Amino acid sequence: MFATMSVQVSPTTLLALMERLRETGSAIDPAEAVDAAIRLWLAAPSGAPPAAPRGYQWKTLFLPEGTWLRMAYRGDHEYAIVEGDHIMYKGRAISPNQFAGGYAESVRNAWQDISIRMPGEKNWKIADARRRELARAAATPVAPATPTAAAAAAATPAASSSAAPMSAAQPAPRDTTPGQGWTEPERRKYRFRLEDVAFD
Questions:
Q1: Do 96 and 87 touch, CB atoms closer than 8 A?
Q2: Which is higher by pLDDT, 121 or 191?
């Protein structure tokens, strides 16, 4: 018998571990699972770069390892899972098209007929909907970091007004002649009075 010591674990972590053990049907004791996880963590090389993600590349859609695929046909469901770089169905590696067509025994559109549940997700989503979401996210324009010509012109109105000829749309130049009280010490540091600027 091995000597044991207690280690504090947060209640949420312990409950998640017990739930995972229950879901997988494992008969291992939670303390043994924690001990095995720590030994695995200690055995992992600390300075090694992170490994490239494993998974199956389905055209523009990447399915990471652990992704479930579900095919529904005539009220029944069949499941496949991504293991390593392959989709495994009944012990053999297949493509999504083979999974959809082989289970239904007819020509099917795999994008429309296969639902996907990525690791860590709870809900299933049709593969085509995922592909369209990915395309929309890639097509969303990112705001440029450099200012546009319109923004630059708005930032320097004095330079643009002196270079451009006067037109009917431009306001008349501001009268900057000092008024009553303008020469007071607190006013000398400002070029315009706040009243003139606020009501433009």
A1: yes
A2: 121
